[in-house]
Amino acid sequence: MVQGCDIAVIGGGPAGLAAAEILAASGGTVTLYDRMPSLGRKLLMAGRGGLNLTHSEPLPAFLGRYHPAQSLTGAIRAFPPDALRDWCAELGQPTFVGSSGRVFPKSFKASPLLRAWLARLGDHGVAIRPRHRLTGIAEGALTFDTPEGDLTVRPAATLLALGGASWPRLGSDGAWVPLLEGLGVPVAPLRPANAGFACAWSDTFRERHAGTPLKRIALTFAGETVPGEAIVTRTGLEGGAVYALSRPLREAILAEGAARLVVDLRPDLAVEALAARLAKGRKGDSLSARLRKAAGLSPVAIGLVREAAGAALPGEPDALPRLIKAAALTLTGMMGLDRAISTAGGVDLGALDGNAMLRARPGLFLAGEMLDWEAPTGGYLLQGAIAGGRAAAGGMLRWLADQGLAQKPTRPVASDGQDAPSPS
C-alpha cells in the first residue's frame, strides 16, 4: 500500500490509464493529467476498426513481434494476453477471438470499455485533470499550461506516458522530446511505424485502382514473407501486410533511398500450377481475360502485374506465372507521422532501470509508446501499452517502498523487458 503520497501520471492513453489504475488501487493519491479535453482519444480512434486488443497466438511467437527483441518480455509475461482478456471481462466487456487470431471486445467498440475503465479509476479516487499540457520538468517539480494559467506541482513520484507522435490531433504530438532531451535523456528520432509507403504508380493504375484492396496476397522483403491484405492508395500501398514489414522497409529506405517489395498475387498456387492454369485458358481469350479466368486475378491484381512488368507483359509461357508470383514494386518513401498508426523511436530503453525509472532522474518513470520499442498492428500495440503501463506502475511501487512510502508489491511486476523477480 502507498502511504498517502501524491503521484502524478501524465498522459491519458492506455499506458497512463493502466498505470493510474494500479497506483490508485494500491492506495496512492493519483492525479492524471492530459493535454486534451478528454482521455483515451487514440483508443477511441482504434475502436473504429473494432478495437483489436491483443492476439491469441502462443506467447513465444507473440513476444517475438516486439522490436528490439526482449523489449517488453517481462511486462507482457507479467500481464499476458489472457490476463488482458480477463481484465476486460471484469470491466463488463467480454472478448472473443476472431478468425485471424486477433482478440476484440464482443461489443466491437472502444467506448464501452473506456467508460468502464474511467469509472473504475473514479472509484479508486483518481483525479482527472484535462487540458493540462506539461511544459517543464525540474527537480521534483512539474509545470503545466492550463486554462487557468501556469501550474506547478511537486508529486512524490511521476509517471510519464505521453505517447509517440502519430495522429498528433488525438493528443500524442511528441512535444515531450525537447523536455527530456533537456534533461540529458537519450531519445531516438521519432519515425512513423505501421504506415503506408510511396510507390510511383502510373496515372492509369492510380485512377483505376486507388482505394482498392489486394486480398489474399503475400508480401516478401528481406527474407520475411507476410500473408494478408493491402490497399492501393493514390500514392502507394498500405494495409496490414505492409505494416507487418514496415520496420525493415523503413530502415532500408532510410539507408538506401528505396526498397524492393515482392508481391505474390496467388500465394495459394505454386508457379507450376499457375502455369498449367494459364496454358489451359480458352482459345481466343485476351491476356486480361486469361489472367482473370484462368489465374483468378482481380482487376487490381492484373493492373499490379502490368505495373510490375513496366511495359508489355512477358509472352514466354513460364515468365508470366513467375511475375504473378513475384511482382516487384519499388517503394521510395513512407507516409508521415501524422498518418502513421504508431511511432518508432523514443526514449532509449537503456536509460531506464529495472523499475522503468530514469536512472538519471529518481522518481521519474516512463511507459508506453514514448519508449523506443515498436510492434506491428494485430493487437500487439495495445497489449504492449497496457502491460507496460502496469509494469511501470509496479516499478514505481517498488521504488516508493524503498523510500519508505509504500509496502513492497505482493506480486512481482516486471517493467524493463526482463522477467520479474520472485517475491523475497
What would you note in describing this structure?
The chain has about 425 residues and is an alpha+beta fold. The protein is about 35% helix and about 25% strand. The chain contains 15 helices and 19 strands. It has helices at about 15-25, 40-45, 60-65, 75-80, 80-90, 110-125, 175-180, 205-210, 240-245, 245-255, 270-280, 285-295, 300-310, 320-325, 380-400; strands at about 5-10, 30-35, 55, 95, 100-105, 125-130, 135-140, 140-145, 150-155, 155-160, 185-195, 195-200, 215-220, 225-230, 235-240, 260-265, 325-335, 340-345, 365. The protein has a 6-stranded antiparallel beta barrel with strand order 12-15-14-13-16-17. It has a 5-stranded parallel sheet with strand order 6-2-1-10-19, covered by helices on one side. α1 (about 15-25) runs parallel beside α15. It is elongated and about 85 Å long.
